[in-house]
Fold this protein.
Amino acid sequence: MAEVVVIGAGLGGLPAAYELRHHLGRRHRVTLVSEFPRFTFVPGLVAVSLGHLALERVQLDLAGLAQRHGLQWVPGKVQALDPVARRIALADRELSYDYLVIATGAELAFDALPGLGVYSHSICNPAHALKARQAWEAFLRQPGDLLVGAAPGAGCFGPAYEFVLLAEADLRRRGLRERVAITYVTPEPYVGHLGVGGLAQARELTEALMHRRGIRTITNARIEAVTPDRVRLADGRSLPFGYSMILPALRGAAFVRAAGLGNEKGFLPLLPTLQHPRYPEIYGVGVSVHLEQPERTPVPIGLPKSGQMTEAMAMVAAHNMAVQLGVKPAPWRIPTLEALCFAEYGDTGIAYIAAPVLPDPGSGQRRYAYAVQGMWVNWAKGAFEHYFLAKMRLGWGIPWFEQWGLRLLFGLALAQPLASPLEVTDHEHSPGSHLHPSGF
Ligand SMILES: Cc1cc2nc3c(=O)[nH]c(=O)nc-3n(C[C@H](O)[C@H](O)[C@H](O)COP(=O)(O)OP(=O)(O)OC[C@H]3O[C@@H](n4cnc5c(N)ncnc54)[C@H](O)[C@@H]3O)c2cc1C
């Protein structure tokens, strides 16, 4: 019997554990380790932070899910990983593994800028979203200037756009809009870039919406510091605020950095099969994985790793581990990194589609990449949230009908077979073999 451990029970870890349970049957043990006792549907935190949704509506109890669906459940934060001895350490115990999935998302790099996260809010985890909501309620009682944006090096801009546009709609609904000047400050080279350049219509649609809603935008912005009531930019500008929400840059988990498994930011550089080049029994999934931003922008930005890309990685990692264990027949699979992201903007929404997110390194082209706008996006996002939470309750990973739905409705594939077998241990120093949809 193999001991399989999944670290992190978020949008990557929980589906990965379910997929593994499904593939491996009862012959192998699947253990889920998570620092928090509840699963959180992170995309719901934007609505939570504005008081539109109760946090409990986007959370599920992990101990109950694990018991119902045949997973061993270990609460606690992983402090250290020894990839040679194949052991992980928590505060109160150690665990051995034969196979490991790292799905720990990212740490928030607040320490990169003075005052960031001290005087500005974030909505990236449940505790931050609740704190942001409390402050938002106080702001509504005494409105001032609203500043929303992202720090240099940030890679996930969708939540900042959602926050600023939903906040604007909220202020309008409450009759407070005239009293609040709103600014969006971003390292993106243009509004609607979202870390993925070249999506047809994305710039036009997003810029027009921000303009229509009277939101001032500052692009190529390098925030240098946040003080109690101002944001200072590298070009000397100083922007006042009564409330600010600034997304930080991200880095990999501390134990990954300490184990020397990550790159300089602690993200996992992986083979296309999602295995670590030096430790083929270690897989990575979701935001913890290194994906190279292909564009050189005036202010550095990362590449977004969306929920759907994360799910695709969870599916592929579980499949490949099952092949490696001899439970499933080859071929191995690789994630296509084709992404669809629904962004809810109040009385409208925009769907951003990139197939794949990383353009072909040779031609610089994608199969297609575009944005479309409409109220249907908000309905689709709401429906997806309900669907996702329902399938997590039921113990489903990424069922076939979800894969077919994405293919039929948006032409998106989550995974493709690996064309040729990999000699994983030979690939450590070969950049072309690292995670890329067409990397080999
Ligand atoms: C506010 C916000 C809104 C978003 N909206 C969208 C959206 O609309 N659409 C979309 O596609 N994507 C969206 N995203 C991105 C999406 O949430 C991520 O792609 C997804 O959550 C990544 O899943 P993950 O498993 O890698 O990380 P997470 O979902 O963050 O899960 C990681 C888990 O690992 C746990 N963990 C971390 N370190 C340890 C440790 N040492 N030991 C044990 N456990 C640990 C964490 O507590 C967490 O539970 C949004 C992101 C944010 C922040």
Remarks:
- The chain has ten helices and 24 strands.
- The domain at 110-247 is CATH 3.50.50.60 (FAD/NAD(P)-binding domain).
- Residues 423-433 have pLDDT under 50 and may be disordered.
- The longest strand covers residues 349-355.
